[in-house]
C-alpha cells in the first residue's frame, strides 16, 4: 500500500509540475526532450545525439542499393542537481492526515519544482546556446526582423522548421503584441497548443513568456531535439510519521527527493537574443 501511494503521489506531482512548466517536455511543441539511457540516480546517463538523417537513394531491383551508415554519438551527463521536499505537517500522525492537506502539500511541491526546472532550464539554454551577433535592444519595428534572423540561423543549422519554440521576456512579448500584422494570437492556435501554455505564433515559432530570462535576454529560440532534460525521483513522495525522532510529537512530513539536469547538445540549435 505504501508503495502504491508513493507512485500515486509521484504521478500527481509530475502531472501538476508539467502543467505549471514554461519549459515543457511533452506536448505539441516541447522545449526539452527526455530521451536518455540509464538512471540519473546512479550518477550518469547517456543522451543519444544524432545530427544526420538516414540516407536514401534510388533502388535497383537487380543490383539493389549500396549500404550506407550513420553514427549516433552519446553525450554523457553527470553531476546532477539534487532536490528534496521535507514539509512538516504538525498535529497529525501519518495515518490520520486528511487527503486535502496531502493534496495541498503535493500541489505546492509541484509548483516549486516547476520553478526550479524552469529557472535551471532557461539558464542552461542561455549559457549553452548561440548568442545573436546583434545586441541592439528590440523595438516594435525591429522585433519581427530579429525573430526572422533567428529562424534563418536555425534553418542554416539544419534545425527542423516545425515545432520550434520561442521563449520571450515580458517586454519582448509586449512588442510582439503591437505587431498586429505578423503576430498570430492565442485565439487562432489549436486547442492543444493553448492547453500546453502557448500564447501565440510568430514567424513560425510557438511562443511562451517567462520572467525568468536574464535581464539582458530578449528571447530564446530553439528546438527540443537538441535540448535535453534529465529528471528522476530518487525517493518518490511519501508521508513520513515523525513520532519517535526525538523532536516532533504528533507530527508527520511530506518527503520526497529527485535529481535533475539540463543539457544542450548542439549550440547552433538554440539562438539567444540579448540586448547587452
Task: Walk me through the structure.
The protein has helices at 2-20, 99-128, 143-156, 170-178, 191-195, and strands at 44-49, 73-78, 81-90, 130-131, 164-168, 184-185, 200-202, 205-209, 217-223, 227-241, 251-264, 270-274. With 276 residues, it is of the alpha+beta class. The chain has one domain: phage-related protein like fold, CATH 3.90.1690. Strands 4-12-9-5-8-7-6 form a 7-stranded mixed β-sheet, with helices on both faces. Strands 3-11-10 form a 3-stranded antiparallel β-sheet. Strands 1-2 form a two-stranded antiparallel ribbon. α1 (2-20) crosses α2. It is globular, with a radius of gyration of 23 Å. The model has no long low-confidence stretch (mean pLDDT 90).
Q: Tell me the helix content.
A: 25-40%
Tell me how many strands there are.
12
**CATH class annotation:** Alpha Beta
> What is the CATH topology assignment?
phage-related protein like fold
CATH architecture field: Alpha-Beta Complex
Q: Approximately what portion of the residues adopt beta-strand conformation?
A: 25-35%
Rg from Cα: 23 Å
Which geometry do the CA atoms define?
Answer: globular
Q: Estimate nothing, just give the exact number of structural domains.
A: 1
How would a textbook summarize the main sheet?
7 strands, mixed
Which regions have little confidence, pLDDT < 50, spanning 5+ residues? none
| Widest sheet: strand ordering | 4-12-9-5-8-7-6
Which sequence of SSEs, written as H and E, runs from N to C?
Answer: HEEEHEHEHEHEEEEEE
Q: Which secondary-structure class do the elements indicate?
A: alpha+beta
Mean pLDDT over the residues: 90
State the helix count.
5
Distance between the termini: 55 Å
